[in-house]
Write a structure and sequence with these properties.
Blueprint lengths: L4 H16 L4 E4 L22 H9 L3 E6 L5 E6 L17 E3 L5 E6 L7 E3 L4 E4 L3 E4 L7 E4 L3 H5 L6 H8 L27 H9 L3 H4 L8 E3 L2 E4 L11 E4 L9 E4 L5 E3 H10 L3 H8 L2
Antiparallel strand pairs: 1-2, 2-8, 3-5, 3-7, 4-5, 4-9, 6-7, 10-11, 11-12, 12-13, 13-14
Helix pairs in contact: 1-2, 7-8
Length: 287
Amino acid sequence: MFESNANLSQKILAAEWYLNLGWSLIPILPQEKRPPHGFGWSYYQYYQPTKSAVHQWIRHGWYLAVVTGPISNLVVIDDDRIKNGLPEWQGLTSSIISVSEHFGKHYFFLYDKELHQANNQTLRLDIKAYHNYCLIPPFGNRYWISKPTKENLAKLKPTPEELVRLILQKPRKTLSHPPKPFFPKQRPTFIKGETWAERVERAKHAPLEIYIYPFLHQQTNIYGGISSLCPFHKENTPSFELKYPVGEQTDFHGHCYGCNRHVIGVIAFHMERTNLEFNSAIRDLTK
């Protein structure tokens, strides 16, 4: 679908604003309203994406969602009453509110470590807390009633206790000790029945957002790719270029004009950066 440059620029500016607020973002498939297949979005529960990664997601035609929980310091209450033909919930308000294309409302609150996922099918109210995400304007024809300015962000309050009780239909438990930090489980070092060739193929498609972009600093967009400081040697002036595949190429090409190193694809990049042998790099990329 063709998209005007003005519309694309608007989305990029909005995404950069959200990043400057300290929010973590992930890409969402427009039709399925979920992250792209195989996209390891758990990484972004702990780390913000780079601007260049977000620009690339938008140019792919993907939507963006904010990751709720401690990384963005947010809880979102999803009110789908109007969408389901019910009267709007009275008394529910926030300093930051968005509206979906079906007139459902999203109320933003401060993150609460004791609050987790919950939905009440009767009331049509959902809690999006830790390990969740919420599509944000201008993606998916959504818009802001009350925008996430820095002033409005400073006015955010915790989710009202009476609302939490209403959604949960019971008092929530108060923890006497803070919960232990959650660390995502590593994927298995092998998949049952997987051959070594299949594992190598899986390594070739390891996500750039985890194994490439975090190691490229002072990124700027160039035609067909990005320029950054070299990830393989120390320098003060960017001399490393990463060019995306063109024509019949299947992998990106990375070249440093300072140390003259050239890599093709995720495996070669990971080997060069970590000084691992090929077999060890494959195991590391397919954990």
